[in-house]
Amino acid sequence: MRNFGSSTMGSTILRDERFAILEECDIHYFQKVVGERAVINDKDELEAANVDWLGKFKGASQVLLRPRTTKQVASILQYCNSRGIAVVPQGGNTSLVGGSVPVFDEVIVNLGAMNKILSFDEVSGVLVCEAGCILENLDKYLAEHGFTMPLDLGAKGSCQIGGNVSTNAGGLRFLRYGSLHGNVLGLEVVLPDGTIVDMLGTLRKDNTGYDLKQLFIGGEGTLGVVTKVSLLTPAKLSSVNVAFLACQDYLSCQEVLVLAKKKLGEVLSAFEFLDRSSLDMALDHLEGMRDPLPSAKQKFYLLIETTGSNENHDKEKLDVFLEDAVRTGHVVDGVVAQDNSQSSAFWRIREGIAEALNKAGAVYKYDLSIPVKDLYQLVEEMRAKLGDSAIVIGYGHLGDGNLHLNISAPKYDEKLLLQIEPFVYEWTSQHKGSVSAEHGLGFMKPHAIHYSKTPETVQLMVKMKNLLDPNGILNPYKVLPSIHI
Amino acid sequence: MRNFGSSTMGSTILRDERFAILEECDIHYFQKVVGERAVINDKDELEAANVDWLGKFKGASQVLLRPRTTKQVASILQYCNSRGIAVVPQGGNTSLVGGSVPVFDEVIVNLGAMNKILSFDEVSGVLVCEAGCILENLDKYLAEHGFTMPLDLGAKGSCQIGGNVSTNAGGLRFLRYGSLHGNVLGLEVVLPDGTIVDMLGTLRKDNTGYDLKQLFIGGEGTLGVVTKVSLLTPAKLSSVNVAFLACQDYLSCQEVLVLAKKKLGEVLSAFEFLDRSSLDMALDHLEGMRDPLPSAKQKFYLLIETTGSNENHDKEKLDVFLEDAVRTGHVVDGVVAQDNSQSSAFWRIREGIAEALNKAGAVYKYDLSIPVKDLYQLVEEMRAKLGDSAIVIGYGHLGDGNLHLNISAPKYDEKLLLQIEPFVYEWTSQHKGSVSAEHGLGFMKPHAIHYSKTPETVQLMVKMKNLLDPNGILNPYKVLPSIHI
């Protein structure tokens, strides 16, 4: 029995006794399948693979496998399923919800050695690759051909496309290129019983039966292991502009969003917002930061980016948009980056807030989707509720309705936590929001699924899980609450 | 026993004896649930609802129900499931594969009376409505608010959004706005056992568990009945340009597609192609048609459309693109529409081909997805195979890899058909294409599913169907081949 102290749960989880304990003969089997070198039991390597990126969750797996082919993955799963051995699939291990590490002694199946690009079609922009390809490597490869990945994340240097797909990663290009549910054209998946399901189509349109691949996009590795991915990629456009604007109230931020959609239309590529407390947090705790609009303090700031194929056109559109935004009084101050270094400086403020929060002390983090019109009300209610006991800040992807609510305090405090939770989840639920916008549920949040999903929906998920993984061997203790004892 | 002579199948299907025969008491129950007026047994109305849009398939249903609420739909399905009564859900009944009509005596549940718009958020562009809303009505409603539907179809005046979602409709705006798998944000669905599953989120990002709504997008009404839809809609842009261009060979068409993606980038909204035989077909059989490029006959023609927020910018982009396309020799002739009437004339040629084919005689129609580079090879091989016995024409959405292959002959001929099929399906399968790009499988093509899906994938579909509809009452005899006896 081990206590996995998610601050929001405090629950105690028992190892599922259905699962077999690994024996020497199992190791021998694995060595036969993937070769001796691909069966890792080195302590340091195992230690790294057992701990999540935040250092919050720690498993006790005794073995990590590095298959190089889909057949090897299939052999591993078929064997583990028949033996009742639990398995955790692992990509770049950058999950923020403990989704990619073992909880107890699950066998780790790391996809990193399956990292080949299989094909790229310059006419259609369709890329086919193995699941272990690192996101940044794919983007570099595409750039040489004049294309770009439809998603971009902070973790791009280590996260893998199979993990991105399995967690339905959102990220920075979401506003422009949309969700992986639209961009993934095909998948190859190994089911828990070892069946290889080849759905690796490269077609934009295919209405021959149910679109089953969608189940594995965001399945968090609990329904099958993604081994190959086919993806639609957009052409890389050359012109990028960034503006940093100030608004007096949240209503104005919304009006500017509406205006941006109309005036910037097809070139709008990011619409980020931060409140004054967020900006102060970055200015106070990060080195070399400057207030881009120092003349007067405002309540809200927007970072707006355009990406297009023609620099003059984009600038002209931005000018027209800014004129309108200022004339109508929605924007009260603003500056457009004159070069790349100024663009980067604006982005560093937005992207540096998380780091600044870590430096400022203890922080309670929530990644929420809330209808845009209600989104900031939660920050204000939380602020009123907590008074002087903590600093409440709100920022995020306004264009996507994605709020990063952060509460900064000198130290972690159970009383403060009880003021925050379950209030945050209940409020989000009442406003038909999502308690996990893009990070998934993983090991950290299965208990919170009911705040965003109805009982009927959760029950259907459980049925899906039981259908595809009747022995429950794949990524156990994750996503679904019923699996928690 | 009745013979449903799909020309491609020639198979004989028996009524599934598991299903109960409708009795007087069933009618009384339905009257209690939806009211007497919403239980239709008028002969003319039933006749219309029993026959598909092509007049190819004819059912023998004795009753049509018009529920007005989700609860009524749930009561109907729960009752039918417990009684073993088969049900066919029906929207605008515009299916081209016999998906929306009864095969035998299934009860027709028509969603047309559930046609309310429930909400529209001008900040996020999220529309929530009932399943029976007609596509064109939704587009008109949105236009008043400066937005547009992300899909557009020839059948927009009668097709319903619930049907569009259930068939994963593609259409004319697909190249620009992508698939419904990306644009549908939420669904309310009634399962065959009457369970109402509320997944009607309005959020762009929600990673709390499996994205189950995806199963019902393209489920063709065999897994559940869609009752409400939440949809992301794009801003309506004001500037539209249309060019009609000629190329000497298919390789040039591909080069122009690559160039258009680069130079037109974010404003490209349609990339259609037609071969000379297609153009001749339209010119010969439709009234008031003129060759837009009469100076010389070429082998291939492209219709390229841009849609953007700034007319001057779009025209300039188009000019630059056209200069490049001509300079490199890929485009040998071309004209840009100078006004709306000229744009419409170009579009009428492209959209009129189907009508022209019908006037020309008998026609064998195939809606295929094929990787762009191989797409036209099928037309050439077919032409070589058939020689003088038929006219083979190829046109379609080149930007999406969607070929409409049509074979025109003086009259229907079994021998000719045997030369075409299964060759077309086998060829498409060998090139990893789809035998139904956007029309679905319906009643017409379940036998062809294996050409585009592996046995493992089809087996998984069957498991899904059995999980959600163990009694098989919902839209029987459709989509899955195993249900055919």
Molecular structure report:
The structure is a homodimer of 485-residue chains. With 485 residues, chain A is α+β, with helices and mostly antiparallel strands. Chain A folds into three domains: 2-113 and 467-483, Uridine Diphospho-n-acetylenolpyruvylglucosamine Reductase, domain 2 (2-Layer Sandwich); 117-232, Uridine Diphospho-n-acetylenolpyruvylglucosamine Reductase, domain 3 (2-Layer Sandwich), CATH 3.30.465; 239-430, Alpha-Beta Plaits, CATH 3.30.70.2190. Chain A is 34% helix and 20% strand. In chain A, the strands form four sheets. In chain A, strands 15-12-14-13-17-18-16 form a seven-stranded antiparallel sheet, sandwiched between helices. In chain A, strand 17 (391-397) and strand 18 (402-409) form a beta hairpin. In chain A, helix 9 packs antiparallel against helix 11 (311-327) and helix 10 (276-285) crosses helix 12 (340-360). Chain A starts with a strand and ends in a 17-residue tail after the last helix. In chain A, 55% of the residues are buried. The model of chain A is unreliable at 1-10 (pLDDT under 50). At the A-B interface, helix 7, strand 10, helix 9, helix 11 and helix 16 of A face helix 7, strand 10, helix 9, helix 11 and helix 16 of B.
